Every structure is written in structure tokens, then in C-alpha cells.
Amino acid sequence: MDIHNCLDVVSFAEAYGMADLLELAEDFVLRRFQEISATPKFQDLPAEKLLQFLRCDALSIPSELAVFRAVVTWVEVDPTERLPQLHPDMGQRLPSKQLWFANSLRSGTGLVKEIEWRLLGEMPDQARFRHGVRVLDGQLYVAGGCHFYAKSDTMKSVYRYDPEQDHWKRLADLHELRSNFMLVVSGDGLYAVGGDKDINTNLDSVEKYSPETDSWSFCHPLDQALSGHAATVWGGEIFISGGFNCKYECLVSMFLYHPERGTTYLAEMTHDRSQHCMESLNNRFYVAGGVRNLHKYYTDQLVCEMYNPVSDIWTVFTPLPVPHVGAASAVLEERLYILGGYCQEDYSEARLTHRYDPVAQRWESMGKMPGPVTDVRACLLSLNPYQSWPNG
């Protein structure tokens, strides 16, 4: 029995009531599930049998991401017929349209302060995750992302939110579908860098948005396809760290990107990582969270690193107390905030917010996130203090 015929053996044993052979074949499938999911026979698996395997505690997988990719491959054979059959089991995590904001801290245990969150409203269009958000000229831009995990769920729509008017406006679409990419502000425009166009294919393209003409134009491409990377702007230049290459391996790279000249590589990080955060603070870049390579799979990356753009040197700093994969990040009052994400080891949600104080050189827990926590995005936006928000 091998990965190419084991599902036939399962069907044969079920049809003829051969309990011992069925147990042996199903055990083989559960142990080799990731390899079997890449075979043509897997795409013919009945929904009931697939759900049986997914519910089994003996299912051997590196992470739920491997399951998602297998299920997406199965669904894409006939999305109309198959996707509804999986909703009872696959719908526990749903994308959200909600926007939350925090402008104060409340007292927690002892002297600890926790973030006080309030609901700002909802985005128009479909709910999304793995999108890009940035603030330009006091207005919030939301671009791309995905609504679910099928190829047709990756998005290219773009919206702008005016906090003074509490109004959303639909803008020109991106040229390409993008999720798990970076959106940055440099000069007078926005740049959408890399990303996934579907769950198994990432991009090397870069687009620039001009607010004056409401249009996107292609810039010099990256020198390789990239997604799950992090980016920050310092001195008017775009710096990009880590991410997945076209084989979805985590990278150690750090490079400078120029819209006309392309990629210039800098000193590599000490540790590989993807789906991490990078923020500029006091002329240093702080990198935290994400996943790292572990043989053929991934595991949580708790090591944190700081980059000096003047000396081109990396330094390790205090590790995260808990995993934050696919988290959001922001800098406020000279402290780094890492918000939400999940744990790669067991795919549990990291509902906490952690704040790093460079002076004290330690992480502090700032309480729980108010709503969705995985593949969320954050930014700093000035709000109208006289505006009445949904929850008062």
C-alpha cells in the first residue's frame, strides 16, 4: 500500500466489510495525510469521508495550514457543490468587517494597564483578512486581502475611509489579486508589494497607487515571488524582511526596495521568519513574531531581532512570551505593540496584545483583543473627538 492506492484500499475494505484492512488503510491515510492530499485520488474523496479524516484525533499534520491547503485543493474541483458541504466544520473562523480603535488604557491587575477598545464601525464590501492597511494624509486605506481560502476569494478591491466625515469611498482596484502582502506609504503614494494571488501562488509584482489620479501602476518587480513578509519605511526608503519564497520556505533576507531600481540586499536576519511584524522605532527596526522553518513544516518563531539601518547589523532582543503568527503591529508613544495572531503549534488564537518597551527591554501584556485576532491589521489614525461611535 502506498500514497497513490491507499484511498482505493479504504473504499475496497468498506465495500466488503473487511474491518482489519479498513483500520490498517485508514491509519495509513491519517499518518500520511499531507502527502496523500497532493495525489489525484484525494480530489475524488467523498465529502463524508474527508470530514471523517479531518475530525480524527490521529490525523498527522504539521499545522492546520496544511489541512486548509488540502481542503482548498479538494474544494476547487467543484466549489459550488463542495464548499457548502464543509461549512459546518470549516466555518469556525470567519472573516470580519469590523473596525476597532483604542485611545485609552484602563486599570488592570495591580499597576498593569490594559487597552480599552471601542468599535469604530464596519468596512464596506465583503469581510476580509490578510489585507493591507495604511494611513495617508489622515485617511485610512484598505486594500486586497481574502474573504476565504478558495482561489476566487482573493480580493483586489480598495477603499478609503475619511474619519472626519465617517465616510467610505471605493477606489480603483489593484491590478492583481493580493493577500498576505505589504501595503506601505512612501512619498506621495501607496505601494502594494508582493503577496499571494491564491493560497499556493505568490507574486513578485509591485504596484503604486496615486491618490491624485485614483490609479495603480506597476513598478519594478521584486527579484523573487514573496508573501508573508514585513515592511517598514525609514528615511523615505522601503525595507522588507523575511517572508515566504515561491516554495513557501521562510526567508532570512532583508533588502531595500526601490520602485525604479528594484532590490538591494542587506545583512540577513539571524533567524528565518514569515508572517511576522516589523516596525521602525527610534531609528531601529524591531522584528517580532511569525513562523520559522522546521524540516518540511513550520513552527512558532519567538526570537525577536532589532536592525540598525545605519550599521546594517542585527541584534537579538527579548523573545516574545507567547507566539504571535499573522499578528498586527503598531508603534505608539515609543513602544511596539503586537496584536493578536495565532500559535502555529496548535493553531490556537493568541488573543493577547503585547507591548515592548525598548527602555525597560521587556514585553508587557496589555489585555485581550476585542474581536477577530488572526491575520488582522493595525495602523494609527487620528479620529474626530466629537464623532459619536457605535458603542458610545
UniProtKB/TrEMBL annotation:
Pfam families in the record: BACK, Beta-prop_ATRN-LZTR1
Keywords, ordered alphabetically: Kelch repeat, Repeat
Annotated InterPro entries: BACK, Beta-prop_ATRN-MKLN-like, Kelch-typ_b-propeller, Kelch_1
Domain BACK as annotated: residue spans: 6-95
Keyword Transferase: no
Keyword tRNA-binding in record: no
SUPFAM superfamilies the UniProt entry points to: Kelch motif
PANTHER family in the record: KELCH-LIKE PROTEIN 33, LD33804P
Protein name in the entry: Si:ch211-63p21.8
